[in-house]
Amino acid sequence: MCGIVGYIGCKPAKPILLDGLLKLEYRGYDSAGISTLEKDGISVIKNKGRVNSLNEIDEINRLEGHIGIAHTRWATHGKPSTKNSHPHLDNSKTFSVVHNGIIENYNDLKKFLISKGYTFLSETDTEVIPNLIHYYYNKLDCKKGEKFLKAVKKACDDLVGSYALEIISIDYPDRIIVTRKDSPLVIGTSTCENYISSDIPAILSYTKKFYLLNNNEYVEIFENKVNFYDKNLKNLKKETKSINWNATSADKDGFDDYMLKEIYEQPKSISETIGSRLKSSDSLVNFDDINFSKKYLSSLQKITIVACGTAMHAGLIGKTLIENLCNIPVEVDIASEFRYRNPIINDKTLAIFITQSGETADTIAALKLAKSKGSKTLAISNVVGSSITREADITIYTHAGPEIAVASTKAYTAQVTLISLLSIYFAEILDSANYELIKELKEDILNLPNKIKKVLDNTEIIKQLANTVYKEKDMFFLGRGLDYSVSLEGSLKLKEISYIHSEAYAAGELKHGSIALIENGITVIAIITNPLLVEKSISNIQEVITRGAKTMIITNQKLDKKNYDYILEIPDINPLLSPILSVIPLQLFAYYITKAKGLDVDKPRNLAKSVTVE
Ligand code: F6R
């Protein structure tokens, strides 16, 4: 939630800050602000609304400073408004602060500061931070060079919650101080300039060399150097990490929206996910970064997969794959439920956490819980160095490239591809699956990029249906087995970006109540890809047709076209891998409906890309 950018260097900060904020808008977009160090003091320009609303404020044109911090907000404490926007100043206007996260004890801190004579202008939790820094700054008796950093550290010692902070001070016009705890922050470095951002993609066009920060580390960033400190302010040495994403992977690259671009990138992102892990259908699946033994895998009583939203839907596919190929029972949990339900897990459980961003608060908390109960933890993430990768025992990366649109598309197919490879890898170690099946799955995985291209070349019918039904209020998605798991994802995609209410049902379950909702003309989208379940699914679809539903079938089976309003054929593939193909028309369906409704596809209301709060 909330995006943070910072710049210090030889160029004017404003254009770089605004550019970075625009690229971070997917993290939150209800208000924005920037603060630069100018000759006459700290300037703060902020406004309710999207980043571009800052350009409506004339004063922005006079900013020339070369040091600045900036913020795009997803409101938690205090409604979206100019006064609640960041940056926030302390009462004396000595410190300016932007913050991503939540300060849980801000009420107590506010009361304390009020008792010391401080006043507050906003309803935010953040405003206590600059004032607390000021409070300690005035009390500290130490050399001026150290005072700023020490005051920040003393203030942070009082904070309970999560934060990524950038702070500038009129008394220290040569530096920015940053720190983080449970909220993401990276530092990009280049000759004579340094950048700060919540996410790598926002500053990728300026540098590919990054420093990754751990919790409770403090950093003084100057134009020509970066000083790192641990939680006790002892000096730390850090190496830069080179990121091999290119800048166009964070651009729209000629597409109208990031979401469409990311949908069309799937042949490439899946190739990257497969990478050198699977070279041919005759070679073993190989993960450079992991090394499981037969003894350990045979000792497992179960695998538990934990994630949120779309990533959890990828976990559902993982369950079927692992259970089928490895014969190990798998549970799938929503992270926000798992962490509070006292799950029965121990050292005989392998706990897998799937998260595109690697920053989802509930998923990270669930991982910590699993670790505390003795389970080995494996993270599947898309973001190198993200928080979860620093907590997990083992991390494997999806390598899907930056995903900017709020609605996840290419990350989902990369997650499913990766977990398919992981299942085969486990099955090969355990010798638990039929050789012919494994070979067929490997051939299909290697052919995925071509098959996805075929799906993407055949989208006209999806657009047609979307343009016909975009004014509807409710829709249904049906499927059995893995087709049901894909239906859940199709339904989530539709509601999150088009705001059309939809439900996904296991096709056989509908008649146990919800079929009462089916009425004349309602749209039902069904997925049929498993030859063993075709007849059963057709019967269920017949039940809704009889009650007047308009039907769209996504299938790789030979069906009688005249029985349905729309049929979209997708390439044949082993049923265990069909979700990677069948989800694509559903992603496009949600996309085209949202475009037909004239809504912002990439930034749906109330949402933000990384959910770093509970
Ligand atoms: C939906 C979507 C969300 C995320 C969920 C988890 O399109 O993107 O449901 O999948 O918030 O996010 P990550 O994968 O970053 O943990």
Give a verbal description of the structure.
The protein is α/β, with parallel strands linked by helices and 614 residues long. Helix content is 34%, strand content 23%. It has 17 helices and 25 strands. An eight-stranded antiparallel sheet has the order 3-2-4-1-10-9-11-15, with helices on one face. Strands 5-6-7-8-12-13-14 form a seven-stranded antiparallel sheet. Helix 3 (128-139) crosses helix 4, helix 12 (410-430) runs antiparallel to helix 13 (435-456) and helix 15 packs parallel to helix 17 (579-596). It is globular and about 80 Å long. The chain starts with a strand and ends in an 18-residue tail after the last helix. The mean pLDDT is 94. Fructose -6-phosphate (F6R) is lined by residues 308-311, 355-357, 360, 363, 407-408, 492, 496, 610-611.
Q: Descriptors for this entry?
A:
614 residues; 8-stranded antiparallel sheet; globular; binds fructose -6-phosphate
Unreliable stretches covering 5 or more consecutive residues: none
Using DSSP, what is the number of strands? 25
Report strand %.
Answer: 15-25%
Mean pLDDT: 94
The helix content, as a percent range, equals: 25-40%
**Major β-sheet annotation:** 8 strands, antiparallel
Provide the gyration radius in Å. Answer: 26 Å
Number of helices: 17
Reading side by side through the largest sheet, how are the strands ordered? 3-2-4-1-10-9-11-15
- List each distinct ligand once: fructose -6-phosphate
The secondary structure category is: alpha/beta
Distance between the termini: 11 Å
* Gross morphology: globular
